[in-house]
Amino acid sequence: MKLLVIEDEESLLQSIVEYFTQEDFLCEGAGSYRQGIEKMEDFQYDCIILDINLPGGSGLELLKYLRKNKKSEGVIIISARSSLDDKIAGLDLGADDYLTKPFHLSELFARVKSLIRRQYASGSDTLEISHMKVNLLLKTVEWGGKQVVLTKNEYDLLLFMLTNKNRVVSRQAIAEHIYGEETDNLASFDFVYSHVKNLKKKMKEKGCGDLLQTVYGLGYKLSI
After folding, report:
1. Measured between alpha carbons, how far is residue 100 from residues 84, 87, 182 in Å?
2. Which of 125-129, 156-160, 189-193 is modeled with the greatest confidence?
3. What is the pLDDT of residue 184?
4. Residue 119 in contact with residue 74, Cβ under 8 Å?
């Protein structure tokens, strides 16, 4: 899972990033309005944690940008503003949740997990498509009742392709989803081929057939 935290308080930003990284999220941070815009333009996330008061602009304007451009990321607002009017304004603009500072990181984590369940599995811990069952809480995968043992990168790849099923996804988009901003330092995207190859092999061994298809010159497509 890929998470973006837009928060100008450096200590809080670092605490959130470290906490979610320990929980096996790919977590990136932005400390200003401009950095937030750049991240949202360049990458796709599963969830965005968004402060309202930011250097250079309002977090609510970032939220408007997301929804205007029909980006599907879930958004949790974190703010010191605790009035009902502020909460209603954020939710009306398209936020999925609103958490007032100060808060415990464990509560934020619980809300992120709840949001992801609503996004991908209609509120359940389990995403079921065809003969596939993905437990979003335990991060396990089954096909036809048989467990498929995946690495973290293979699991992230599968979930990313499931959320983009029946669409062609480029190698660059896959690389950015798995490695985030570190992708800029990579010499090539050849590792994506290895992840796809390993995932296809493991799924085939459980009898699922050609789950991932190569679209030559463009990328990969999951048809299910």
Report:
1. 11, 9, 31
2. 156-160
3. 67
4. yes
**CATH T-level topology, domain 126-222:** Arc Repressor Mutant, subunit A (1.10.10)
Instruction: Give the residues across from 148 on adjacent strands.
Output: 141
- Mean pLDDT check: name the lowest of 3-12, 49-58, 168-177, 181-190: 181-190
| SS3 letters across the chain | CEEEEECCCHHHHHHHHHHHHHCCCEEEEECCHHHHHHHHHHCCCCEEEEECEECCEEHHHHHHHHHHCCCCCEEEEEECCCCHHHHHHHHHCCCCEEEECCCCHHHHHHHHHHHHHHHHHCCCCEEEECCEEEECCCCEEEECCEEECCCHHHHHHHHHHHHCCCCEECHHHHHHHHHHHHHHHCCCCHHHHHHHHHHHHHHHHCCCCCCEEEECCCEEEECC
The domain locations on the chain are 2-121, 126-222
On whether the CB atoms of residues 71 and 94 are closer than 8 A, the answer is: no
What pTM was estimated for this model as a whole? 0.73
pLDDT reported for residue 123: 65
pLDDT grade, residue 28 (50/70/90)?
very high
What's the CATH class of domain 2-121? alpha beta
Dihedral sign for Cα 106, 107, 112, 114, please: positive
**To the nearest whole number, what is the mean pLDDT of the chain?**
87
pLDDT at 188 over 80: no
